[in-house]
Amino acid sequence: MTQRKGIILAGGSGTRLYPITMGLSKQLLPIYDKPMVYYPLSVLMLAGIREMAVITTPQDQAQFQRLLGDGSQWGLELTYIAQPEPEGLAQAYILAKDFLAGAPSAMVLGDNIFFGHGLPEILAAADAQTTGGTVFGYRVADPERYGVVDFAPDGTVRQIVEKPKVAPSRYAVTGLYFLDGTAPERAAKVEKSERGELEITTLLEMYLADGKLSVQQMGRGYAWLDTGTHGSLLDAGNFVRTLSERQGQQIGSPDEIAYQRGWIDADALRARAEIFGKNQYGEYLLRLLG
């Protein structure tokens, strides 16, 4: 089986967060004690993915490279791809075609945070699907802001509706997509919507029309945070802080995940901890060594 590759879509202009994103990429903003991009990165790591492409704007790429490097500090291999103009989520598969080289992929949006005790298990289940695609449905109070799943009475998926005025359900499609190796080919056939974007919903509808799309519902035990507004950005930081201080455990730590999975050894983790020696994150990493 071809090893699944990861895509972190961290492009876009971030205009909804102006003025704080006028000089800094949204995905580099802090979510409590870590940069935002650490959280989607950690999701792909929890899925067992070690080869990833980070898609950024040309002007922000150097900042991401300075932050993440080549990924070797976590046992990863990172590739950087520039997104000249933000033209919709489906564009990511066109830009990443050469990187994927026919491999299946897991794409996560750079401003999405996922949390839940069973997260590695549901990611593993999605990864096991070698053909077609899997997306995750999450119940929200304001489905009109998202792509929404329309379920038939028997629970099967009829369609996915982008930002509906009248939502067919309260289950939004999260920013995490497990698709097979045909995704770039399918994305190339997507036509721009009235918004002038290559909609991810249209791409998913192609899979659905072929009977190759499954929607896995995330239940009450999971949290999905979309940090696209000032309020949700603050909420995400408070959420991470509350859980971290209450439980004494980190959320979205690539260092911890890499060590637990055996991708880096104790000496490498200790070296990382020394970089953060003056704060609680560094102390936390040292505690992992016993």
Automatic annotation (TrEMBL):
Class of this enzyme: transferase
Matches recorded under Pfam families: NTP_transferase (PF00483)
Reaction equation(s) it catalyzes: dTTP + alpha-D-glucose 1-phosphate + H(+) = dTDP-alpha-D-glucose + diphosphate
Enzyme Commission (EC) number: 2.7.7.24
Record's signal peptide: none
Record key words, sorted: Magnesium, Metal-binding, Nucleotidyltransferase, Transferase
Cofactor(s) this protein requires: Mg(2+)
Top-rank taxon: Bacteria
Example of a GO MF term: metal ion binding
Function: Catalyzes the formation of dTDP-glucose, from dTTP and glucose 1-phosphate, as well as its pyrophosphorolysis.
Family, as annotated: Belongs to the glucose-1-phosphate thymidylyltransferase family.
The name this protein goes by in its record: Glucose-1-phosphate thymidylyltransferase
Source organism: Lutimaribacter saemankumensis
